C-alpha cells in the first residue's frame, strides 16, 4: 500500500466499529484490547503524529497556520508512514487554507461510512454531552470544527468537519479517489457481505471464516462488555453514556423529538434522499 488508506466518516457514524473489526482482523480474528489494539488504525489527526511529521508543535500555530500546514503533513505521512488511518476531516478546503487537509494525491484509497443523520444526532448528543437540539444545530453548521479547546490541549489537531450534508458529499463526490462507500445500516443488516467487501477493497483476508471470526471479536456486545470492565479512553469526558451505547439503526424514532427529526430531514433532505434515508 502506497499512501494513506483512510477510514473516513462524519463523527458517530461507525468509524470506531470498523477500526475494531480491522484491529481484530489484523490479529487473525483475535479479541482486541480497546485501549491498545485500536492504535493499529491510527488517528490521522492525532497531535503526536502530526507534530512528528510536521517537525514542530501545532500548539504554537494559529488555526489558519494549522490549516495551511495540514496538507503538507498529510503528504509527508503518506510518504514516510503509509497505512491505515481514521479521520473525521471533510474533503473541503478550510478557511485559511488552499486545499483540503488530506489532498487526493496523499490518498491511496478511502472507505467512507455514512449513517442516518437522525441516529447520528442522538449519538453525538450522548457522546459530547449536548442536548439533542444542540446536536441537530451543530450538524447543520458549515463552520463546525473539532480539535480546538480553550481549556486544555486537545489530543488532535483541528479538523474542518462542516455540516453533515457537506461532509458526506465532499467525499462521495470526490471523483479523483479510489473510494468505497458503506452505509452503517447495511453493515448491520448484512455484516458478512459488507465486511467481505471492505476486506477486498483493503487487500485483506476475505475468506468467510476469517471475517466471521473478526466480526465475532468486534461485535457490539463484546466491545460494550469490555468498555464496562476496563473503560475506553476515546470516550469523551463530557459524555452522558457509554461510548458503545446501543449500536443499532433507527433508534432516533424513540429518542429524537419529532420536531427535531423534522428539522434534520429538512436541513439534509437532498442528501438523505440520495442515500435512501426516509
UniProtKB/TrEMBL annotation:
InterPro entries in the record: P-loop_NTPase, Sulfotransferase_dom
Pfam families: Sulfotransfer_1
Segments forming domain Sulfotransferase: 6-274
Source domain of life: Bacteria
Keyword Ribosomal protein: no
Keywords annotated in UniProt: Transferase
Family per record: Belongs to the sulfotransferase 1 family.
Stated name of the protein: Sulfotransferase domain-containing protein
Organism: Ancylobacter vacuolatus
Amino acid at each position: 500500500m502506497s499512501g494513506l488508506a483512510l477510514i473516513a466518516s462524519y463523527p458517530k457514524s461507525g468509524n470506531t466499529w470498523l477500526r475494531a473489526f480491522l484491529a481484530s482482523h489484523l490479529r487473525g480474528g483475535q479479541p482486541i484490547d480497546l485501549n491498545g489494539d485500536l492504535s493499529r488504525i491510527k488517528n490521522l489527526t492525532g497531535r503526536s503524529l502530526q507534530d512528528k511529521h510536521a517537525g514542530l508543535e501545532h500548539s504554537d500555530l494559529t488555526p489558519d497556520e494549522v490549516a495551511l500546514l495540514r496538507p503538507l503533513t498529510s503528504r509527508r505521512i503518506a510518504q514516510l508512514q503509509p497505512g491505515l488511518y481514521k479521520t473525521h476531516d471533510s474533503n473541503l478546503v478550510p478557511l485559511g487554507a488552499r486545499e483540503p487537509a488530506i489532498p487526493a494525491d496523499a490518498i491511496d484509497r478511502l472507505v467512507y461510512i455514512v449513517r442516518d443523520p437522525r441516529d447520528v444526532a442522538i449519538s453525538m448528543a450522548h457522546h459530547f454531552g449536548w442536548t439533542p437540539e444542540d446536536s441537530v444545530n451543530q450538524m447543520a453548521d458549515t463552520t463546525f470544527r473539532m480539535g480546538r479547546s480553550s481549556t486544555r490541549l486537545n489530543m488532535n489537531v483541528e479538523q474542518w468537519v462542516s455540516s453533515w450534508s457537506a461532509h458526506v458529499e465532499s467525499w462521495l463526490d470526490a471523483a479523483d479517489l479510489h473510494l468505497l462507500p458503506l452505509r452503517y445500516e447495511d453493515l448491520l443488516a448484512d455484516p458478512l457481505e459488507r465486511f467481505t467487501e471492505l476486506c477486498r477493497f483493503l487487500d485483506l483476508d476475505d475468506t468467510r471464516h476469517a471475517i466471521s471470526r473478526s466480526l465475532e471479536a468486534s461485535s457490539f456486545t463484546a466491545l460494550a462488555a469490555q468498555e464496562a470492565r476496563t473503560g475506553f479512553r476515546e470516550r469523551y469526558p463530557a459524555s452522558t453514556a457509554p461510548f458503545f451505547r446501543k449500536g443499532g439503526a433507527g433508534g432516533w424514532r424513540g429518542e429524537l423529538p419529532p420536531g427535531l427529526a423534522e428539522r434534520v430531514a429538512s436541513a439534509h433532505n437532498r442528501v438523505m434522499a440520495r442515500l435512501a434515508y426516509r
